[in-house]
Specification:
Blueprint: H1 2-5, E1 7-8, E2 11-12, H2 15-31, H3 36-43, H4 47-59, E3 63-66, E4 70-73, H5 75-97, H6 106-113, H7 119-128, E5 153-155, E6 163-170, H8 175-184, E7 191-197, E8 204-208, E9 211-215, H9 217-220, E10 223-226, E11 230-231, H10 233-236
Antiparallel strand pairs: 1-2, 3-4, 5-10, 6-7, 6-10, 6-11, 7-8, 8-9
């Protein structure tokens, strides 16, 4: 199955294409509509380079690209993306659990290793780790059949004051941001309480354990939390802002 997914006819799918597919998959789930500009920003390349690559990938039926209307993965492209993502997240888990590799460096190292991972070694790592369901940053690991678990979530930015939530996963493509989140104690499984939302796009005041922090909006958009928050005592007694309608902010596809 690997050989079928990693080639189209006699044309091999390159490592660069796999990187594009993985990024497009993530952007589809984070933003909905994927543009050449958003791909370029995520990969750190110029837009003309993205356009040229998308033409090559469209010829291989990996993506559908219409100018000014965005990019989307085909079924074939999604299959390849999920295989690469499975390799990546299993490698992150292995590096963290077995080698105790630094949390903020896992993503970059897995990026270097994911393309050469054999199916045999992938299966061995999966079994060795006890078939993990999520990587160290909280992202669900695609199953061997290509399916991906879905978990309702919201961004921390959208949590109303007076709500306590559990961190599900954090964006992992910025090493400095991951290091800062670790310093704040914000990791998957940690409970975070939103105490205050400052006006005019100001930061959130949050509590993590016994410590309080101010978290900017850009950072809070990179933290995904449970969609079924628990009201705190302060909110129950009317001391905090009224909760927003959760249906306006809940996402069902937090497994990006």
């Amino acid at each position: 199955m690997r050989q079928q997914r990693r080639s189209v006819g006699r044309t091999a799918i390159t490592q660069a294409m796999e990187d594009y597919l993985k990024v497009i998959f993530a952007l589809e789930r984070e933003e909905g509509r994927v543009t050449t500009q958003s791909i370029a920003a995520r990969l750190g390349v110029q837009s003309p380079s993205v356009t040229n690559m998308l033409k090559r990938m469209a010829a291989l039926q990996l993506v559908e690209h219409q100018p000014y209307r965005g990019v989307r993965l085909t079924e074939r492209g999604r299959d390849v993306a999920l295989e690469v993502i499975r390799h990546h997240r299993l490698l992150e888990s292995f590096l963290a659990e077995v080698l105790q590799y630094p949390w903020e460096a896992l993503h970059e190292e897995a990026d270097r290793l994911e393309h050469g991972l054999s199916e045999e070694l992938e299966s061995w790592i999966d079994a060795r780790l006890g078939y993990p369901t999520a990587d160290p940053h909280g992202h669900p690991i695609p199953r061997s059949d290509g399916s991906l678990p879905e978990r309702p979530c919201v961004r921390l930015e959208d949590v109303a004051p007076g709500e306590a939530v559990e961190v599900l996963h954090v964006a992992d493509h910025d090493r400095d941001q991951l290091r800062y989140l670790a310093e704040l104690g914000i990791r998957p499984g940690i409970r975070v309480e939103v105490l205050e939302r400052l006006p005019f796009e100001g930061p959130l005041r949050i509590r993590v354990g016994e410590r309080e922090h101010y978290v900017g909006r850009m950072l809070s958009r990179s933290v995904f939390v449970s969609a079924n928050p628990r009201r705190t005592e302060a909110a129950e007694t009317g001391e905090e802002a009224v909760r927003a309608d959760p249906m306006d902010r809940t996402r069902s596809d937090c497994g990006h």
